[in-house]
Specification:
- The protein is α/β, with parallel strands linked by helices.
- Among the domains are: 6-112, Arginyl tRNA synthetase N-terminal domain (Gyrase A, domain 2), CATH 3.30.1360; 189-263, no CATH class.
- The chain has 28 helices and 14 strands.
- The chain has a four-stranded parallel beta sheet, sandwiched between helices. The chain has a three-stranded antiparallel beta sheet with strand order 3-4-5, covered by helices on one side. It has a three-stranded antiparallel beta sheet with strand order 8-9-10.
- Strand 11, helix 18 and strand 12 form a beta-alpha-beta unit.
- It is globular, with a radius of gyration of 29 Å.
- The structure holds one RNA strand.
Length: 619
RNA sequence: GCACCCGUAGCUCAAUGGAUAGAGCAUCGGUCUUCGGAACCGAGGGUUGCAGGUUCGAGUCCUGCCGGGUGUACCA
């Protein structure tokens, strides 16, 4: 077998089968059985998928039904024509059984040959990539995620972008793409105007000296209330109410401080440079805890020198013009709101920065794709920015995929946006602490876990399980919907949770300790996995679908496809392990089953790693 | 008003236009003199918000309602 499905002995069974179906469909067109335009073949071939039920075989193709009307034939007859050519496709017979007759309205069901399955899984056991082939055509992909406003403390709202973006980046990188991660910090906007105003009017020097982060956070929260001047907020906060009464023009003054910063005012610039390390230290501590890293951290301030030219160029090209004192790009009719790129007071907006950033990334990184992992409330903004960028026509923009990877809101168990009882947003660090604390209470309670675990080990396990639980709960959810944050649910030891998956790894790999097995030697000696029992076969097939799961994650940027598959794999393994002896088996059968255990443990571990989730030896 | 997203088991959630809509929790039952029982096997539980339409086939696509969320000119 050559091409898509094969790479240094790595076989993606689904890709290989799709390639064979492509051969069959092209033959169908060439023989005038039915005219299938080349452009449609890719879509039809993608209809080759895993079957819903093992009784239908391993994979099925459903395109015969779709083609029947056009061919003027019965779907079953079209299916027969496809099958006739499929079995002659190069390499088909090496991997797959000949399909039987079409089933139902015209399903073509295919089963992997047992000896081929055994050979492929044996190679996966010996493979660092666990049998997963890299993509044939690597792309350069920029993943823009996390992007907090550095002047505010990170809160629960930042977790989704950070965790989802990190997982997508890891997965694309493992797939073989050139991935560039960039944390587009909000370090130049109105929130700094608030801190600057607060610093000048109501700072507490002693507090800043003792804990600069806390003092800046206090100033931000206080000034935001003063500037917003919402009666109900002021009623609950006498300090803010007093300030608001003394400074009725605070909102305008905050914007003026922002504008002065942008214009290069020496005092504001100096304060900004003084505050930035404080803010960066704060968020970097959280990233360290989450074990999230970035290739670049090019915040809004980095692009600030390019903004004037961006506006000028858009105006010069006739795309942007003055309106009500501001400058906007008019994308729709006269009544549709324009995309504002310069305020009436001269300050730039985040749309301006986003456009300049696209131009800079295209010029410096030449990406094929840019993913923006940002919450769904900004979908309209990105639609406008992407459209404006395309019309702007900067070099490379016609060939780049600009994708808004949107996600829903984190809700509390009452179904409303996640807040503390006092109504404040929940700080991210406090959230992580609580997760770890609760994890500590549930880990180490099993028999094996209890045995000989030091206090330090327990802390490490609690950290891994607690942080993992928070990440996994987020990643296992369909990202487009809102999700309900519940420590009780995410720390359950059964079901599709991090703790269950981490336990599965520890349990699988505990065998090797118990049996005194040298795993390296086991892998080198693995020449033929035996799949005599249906449960062994099912596990082997599932293991080989790792690459398919990762492919499906990439297609729609949906990490929950991977969590669901890992959970299925863990279930397959449990079924296998429950009914078949491993350490108690003998000879070649024992080695073969140990090899399946070894591969299962490594795939689970790697899968969790690609989600940014750690594992432990014992728990 | 307009735009976008979401309504799936009692609860929390899955399901590239494919076969009988699946998991976990909860409920009920079964297995095994534990290779890590934090296990395995099974049962009950559904008019996928409502009504039409397209299709060989619709939870999924289209139209209209109902209900919820978000956004909607100078925050990001």
């Amino acid at each position: 077998m050559s091409g898509a499905g094969d790479q240094a002995g790595r076989v993606n069974l689904r890709s290989a089968l799709r390639q064979a179906f492509r051969f069959a469909l092209e033959g169908l067109a060439a023989d005038d059985v039915v005219a299938v335009p080349e452009a449609e073949i890719a879509g039809l071939v993608e209809q080759v998928r895993e079957t819903a039920d093992a009784k239908f075989g391993d994979y099925s193709g459903t395109m015969a039904m779709a083609l029947a009307k056009r061919a003027g034939k019965k779907p079953r007859d079209v299916a027969l024509e496809i099958i006739k050519r499929l079995i002659t496709a190069p390499g088909y017979a090496d991997l797959f059984e000949p399909p039987g007759d079409p089933v139902g309205p015209g399903f073509i069901n295919v089963r992997v040959k047992d000896d081929a399955l055994a050979a492929v899984v044996s190679r996966a056991v010996a493979d660092d990539r666990l049998g997963v082939a890299a993509v044939e055509h690597p792309q350069t992909v920029v993943v823009d995620f996390s992007s907090p406003n550095v002047a505010k403390p990170m809160h629960v709202g930042h977790i989704r972008s950070t965790v989802i973006g990190d997982a997508i980046a890891r997965i694309l990188r493992f797939r073989g793409h050139r991935v560039i991660t960039d944390n587009h910090l909000g370090d130049w906007g109105t929130q700094f105007g608030m801190i600057l105003w607060g610093w000048k009017h109501c700072r507490n020097d002693a507090a800043f000296g003792a804990d600069p982060t806390a003092e800046l956070g206090r100033l931000y929260r206080l000034v935001r209330k003063v500037a917003d001047a919402k009666p109900e907020e002021l009623a609950a906060d006498p300090t803010a109410a007093t300030l608001a009464a003394e400074h009725p023009d605070a909102a305008r003054e905050v914007l003026a401080e922002t504008a002065k910063l942008h214009e290069g005012d020496a005092e504001n610039r100096a304060l900004w440079e003084r505050f930035m390390p404080v803010c960066r230290g704060e968020i970097d501590r959280i990233y360290a805890r989450l074990q999230v890293t970035f290739d670049h951290t090019l915040g809004e301030s980095f692009f600030q020198p390019m903004l004037a030219a961006t506006v000028d160029d858009l105006v010069a090209k006739g795309l942007a013009r003055e309106s009500r004192g501001a400058i906007g790009v008019f994308l729709g009719g006269e009544d549709d709101p324009p995309l504002l790129i310069r305020k009436a007071d001269g300050a730039f907006l985040y749309a301006t920065t986003d456009l300049a950033t696209i131009q800079w990334r295209l010029e410096n990184w030449e990406p094929d794709r840019i993913l923006y992992v940002v919450d769904h409330r900004q979908s309209q903004h990105f639609e406008q920015v992407f459209e404006a960028a395309r019309r702007w026509g900067v070099d490379g923009v016609a060939d780049v995929d600009l994708v808004h990877v949107a996600f829903g809101t984190v809700l509390g168990e009452d179904g409303k946006p996640f807040k503390t009882r006092a109504g404040d947003t929940v700080g991210l660090e406090a959230l992580l602490d609580e997760g770890v604390e609760r994890a500590a209470a549930v880990v180490g309670s099993g028999e094996e876990g209890r045995a000989g675990m030091s206090a330090e080990d327990r802390r490490h396990v609690a950290e891994t399980v607690g942080i993992g639980a928070i990440k996994y709960a987020d990643l296992s959810q369909n990202r487009t919907t809102d999700y309900v944050f519940s420590f009780d649910k995410m720390l359950q030891l059964t079901g599709n949770t991090a703790a269950y998956m981490q336990y599965a790894v520890a349990r699988v790999e505990g065998i090797f300790t118990k049996g005194g097995i040298d795993r390296g030697q086991l892998r080198r000696a693995c020449h033929g996995v035996l799949l005599s029992d249906p449960k062994e076969r099912a596990l082997a097939l599932e293991l080989l679908r790792f690459g398919e799961a990762l492919e499906d994650v990439e297609a729609d940027s949906r990490p929950n496809v991977l969590t669901a598959w890992l959970y299925d794999l863990a279930g397959c393994y449990s079924t296998f392990y429950d009914s078949l002896s491993v350490l108690k088996a003998e000879g070649a059968e024992r080695d073969s089953r140990l090899a399946l255990c070894d591969l299962t443990g490594r795939v689970l571990r790697r899968g969790l790693d690609l989600l940014g989730i750690g594992t432990v030896e014992k728990m």
